[in-house]
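Final report, results section. Input specification for complex C-07:
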Amino acid sequence: MAATIKDVALKANVSVATVSRVLNGTAKVSDTAKAAVLKAQRELGFYLNANARTLARQDSQTIGILVSDISDPYFASMIKACDVTANALNKSLLITQGFYDAKREQKALDNLLSHQCSGIIIHVLGISDEVLSDYMKRFPYIVLVNRLLKGFEDRCVTIDNEQAMFNVVNYLIEQGHQKIAYVQSEYEVADNTQRLSGYKKALIAHNLEVDDSLILKAHPSLEGGSKVAKELIDIGLNKFTAVACYSDTIAAALMTNLINSGISVPDNVSITGFDNLFLSSCMIPALTTVINPIEQMGKRALELSIALKNGDHSFKLGSFETKLVCRNSVKKLK
Amino acid sequence: MAATIKDVALKANVSVATVSRVLNGTAKVSDTAKAAVLKAQRELGFYLNANARTLARQDSQTIGILVSDISDPYFASMIKACDVTANALNKSLLITQGFYDAKREQKALDNLLSHQCSGIIIHVLGISDEVLSDYMKRFPYIVLVNRLLKGFEDRCVTIDNEQAMFNVVNYLIEQGHQKIAYVQSEYEVADNTQRLSGYKKALIAHNLEVDDSLILKAHPSLEGGSKVAKELIDIGLNKFTAVACYSDTIAAALMTNLINSGISVPDNVSITGFDNLFLSSCMIPALTTVINPIEQMGKRALELSIALKNGDHSFKLGSFETKLVCRNSVKKLK
DNA sequence: ATACGTCATGTAAGCGTTTACATAAATTAT
DNA sequence: ATAATTTATGTAAACGCTTACATGACGTAT
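Structure output:
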């Protein structure tokens, strides 16, 4: 249907090799030939077939990305950073979503794998450690984002979730809070577990009791945050003075729901988030949260994956630092 | 490097055709042969090469998408809907970003075009009508989102922007507002122009004067909204009682900045947005805005593009309805 | 027993590129 | 003038798959 390189060659009166050389700039071609080729290309509206090229070159110039949900600003930021980085390397992104479901994640990953990507970056929650380890072993260029998998630490792009949440809760305690609730994500994966652990360690470090009835679960979305607001109200405001949340998304929805129920933030309840999404600075009061260097993580993950795919094992990820941002959603108690 | 279908055939003691048939389920194969193939596949960790398959089948099973910026929730929602729809059709998404820049948009589009996509959906602002028309003509399956291009109306997935904004401003007037400022997007494209026009028409319909000094421009982002907040304060709060905004993103940032400057919303100033992003319902006060059926638009755009690519010209888009959602960011004046 | 259809399987051409190698022309050195 | 080198171009194999067509082994109807 569409024109091929042969059509262009025919029209320009040269061989297909010459056309390829002109269009790729891979070798010197006489000015007359070059002009003829470009003219023919223009007239035919011709584009080199990327699939045929990939087959011949054994290199797709494509980076595969798998995230849970593009519409989550956290992933969107990561993808944006990846795209910018990929673009600079003349590569494009093949993006798929797993929606927190093991089956869909696996299907999406298999799809990516069949595309001969120059790199693959995944964020998966549903797939078990065992299955995931198998993939990581078989495809040594897959890079994992925000999940620490035993045996593959140097292909995991993560932050120190435990320390980050420790800092948050430590800060709350310094502000005079003693009864601090915690809302974790309902997915049982590393970052979630680690943040919870940081929360507990901070309490323990200050000789405060860990009260399991103050530890709740929510889906990491605005809907999840709304639901958990009701649960917290049911628990009773006298049981806690602050709520540390797994994410900004949860925190924002929680805060909105509390305020709309007539509960003042931070006067009645202090709230903290995690990620430093734009959303968090738009809220009133602005959310106290943790800067999560997701753009940088996306960029480095991409670079690492490409290096690994090329057999370069010298590339080191480095570490990614978080930082507590104190804004107005936390009240200092006497 | 990676195993090929030949390796599998060899290992399973069958021909490549049989392997292909088993892996694609395209023809009956004896149980013994099937079992042998699947065993060999597993042992080799084999995936069919998607590029080779595309070349042979002349069908990439891939939908190309070009948006301005993935991290804009508006686009993220659209892409999510596209992914869900594509997934149901066993297709995947090739996503690129144009970042509001004509050059980058064109490069991204050219890239998409070279991938033999089964469909292409684009949202571009930088590319001129002339250049865009040329693309639309040459590739009759490209579908345009949120931009009305003369001569290609039935391949444009849009809403009635003018009417929608008319309704917003009409509502503001009904609530007693007479001096209404407007913040438009800084990009001069159809939806922006149309919304502005709706704003003006609503004023005129009520015999109110259109005051150009109350019409401002902002980048359609949270940063843009923050900037314009300062400009509005400079203009002076006595000059207007309400601000209608091109988008929720702008409106949210504007509202936050005003409130943080000690200006109460809606007591001092009423604000309206557009799109009904999640963000808008998280704000306090919740934003009065317009439901923009972006998910549905993404879905239909994808279906249309695939139909066109298949030469099916009977597919009709239908229309996309907006709806005003009245929340708490608008005050009723006496 | 013969002829016919059915079924599982294999053979090989084709998809649109890239690129190693071959070749012919032009240039330079001797 | 001849040989050696450089340069532009062409030829054809290869990339990994799909699939039309061919083939041979069966089962069934006659």
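Chain A touches chain B through 52 residues (CB under 8 Å). The mean pLDDT of chain A is 94. This concludes the modelling results for the funded period.
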